[in-house]
Amino acid sequence: MSDMRLIVAGAGGRMGRTLIQAITAADGAVVAGAVDAPASAAVGRDAGELAGLGRNGITVTTDVTALLASADALVDFTVPAASVIHAEIVARAGKILVLGTTGFSGENETLIAEAAKRAVVVKAGNFSMGVNLLAALTRRVAATLGEDFDIEIVEMHHNKKIDAPSGTALMLGRAAADGRGVNLAQRSIRGRDGETGARNKGDIGFASLRGGTVVGDHSVIFAGTAERIELTHKAEDRIIFARGAVHAALWARGQRPGLYSMADVLGLGDV
Ligand code: NAD
Predict the structure, then answer these.
(1) DSSP E strand stretches across the chain
(2) Domain parsing of the chain, residue ranges
(3) By alpha-carbon position, which residue is closest to atom 12 of ligand 1?
(4) pLDDT confidence bin for 37, thresholds 50/70/90
(5) Positive/negative CA dihedral, 201, 217, 174, 187
(6) Cβ(16) to ligand 1 under 6 A?
(7) Average pLDDT over every residue of 133-141
(8) Ligand 1 within 6 A of CB of 23
(9) Atom of ligand 1 nearest to the CA of 131
(10) Residue 271 above 60 pLDDT?
(11) Among 18, 61, 152, 228, which lies 20 to 30 A Cα-Cα from 134?
């Protein structure tokens, strides 16, 4: 099979640059194009140079539609407003979208689900294998322990992150809620402050820390009477997300249109 041709959206960003490195190093995939926002300083620059690899002859542009005509997939780690537009463009072209952006509103999620009726969309708040395994373990532990154990999810990220809780923390919260057979939206407690009253049994709590250059730490704490179980993952380099996204793109080739998760890609559904 010929190499899969991938376009990187948000090429000038932290993840975009890392994706260019990961795709360049991967077997079976090549960088077919790179885009960023019209106002970005990355536009007009060489994508390889941006990624610290030396020139690769691919200039960062702003026109996803034109690039998609000769590519297989768009790998998008940008901002929600851009990602929903990209999802519609990919759906119209009937291509593949690997979507790593986080911080989507409910309305954004509906638009993405709509696009996934016409395109293969692999969407994950975290593309690392370790975190997806953590989510599967969280689901299983939550199902085993029940509501006698209080669940708290703690995350820490670098000081440039713009959304909280992290997409990964929410993914872990959904895994815990799934394990318990409850709806996360009805049980989640975020950012306690002041006289909050005692904790309600069955709540799933979130706490977000920001500082320095932390790539992403996540812990799921199951706090019972006189004992505690803590499941933790620490990301040390963004390359783990980028490699996961490339793996997802290669997996997506040949799938039917639909909305897929990294658990689908990794076959973790039954853990
Ligand atoms: P960043 O701010 O460094 O990069 C975002 C890039 O998107 C910038 O270059 C920006 O100019 C570009 N952009 C904005 N609007 C655009 C548009 N209309 N078209 C094209 N490009 C546009 O951010 P980052 O740290 O690279 O993170 C990006 C997103 O990925 C965030 O939502 C973050 O939470 C998420 N993320 C996800 C994972 C995962 O595994 N799913 C891992 C890390 C980060």
Answers:
(1) 4-9, 29-35, 60-61, 73-76, 96-99, 120-123, 150-157, 188-190, 204-210, 216-223, 228-235, 258-260
(2) 4-123+238-266, 129-235
(3) 10
(4) very high
(5) positive
(6) yes
(7) 96
(8) no
(9) 40
(10) no
(11) 18
Q: Do domains 4-123+238-266 and 129-235 have the same CATH topology?
A: no
pLDDT at 270 over 60: no
Judge if pTM exceeds 0.90. no
For a pocket test of ligand 1, which of 7, 8, 14, 15 has the largest count of ligand atoms closer than 8 A to its C-beta?
15
Q: Which two tokens stand for residue 160?
A: 């440039």
User: What is the topology classification, in CATH, of domain 4-123+238-266?
Assistant: Rossmann fold (3.40.50)
Residue pair 100/127 in contact (Cβ under 8 Å)? The answer is: yes
pLDDT for 125: 87
Q: Which residue's CA lies nearest to atom 4 of ligand 1?
A: 13
Fold adopted by 129-235: Dihydrodipicolinate Reductase; domain 2 (3.30.360)
Closest of 47, 45, 40 to residue 23, by C-alpha: 47
The beta-carbon contacts of 229-232 under 8 Å, at least 24 apart in sequence, are 229/141, 229/145, 229/149, 231/134, 231/137, 231/138, 231/141, 232/134
Cβ–Cβ under 8 Å, residues 175 and 136: yes
Averaged pLDDT score across all residues of the chain: 96
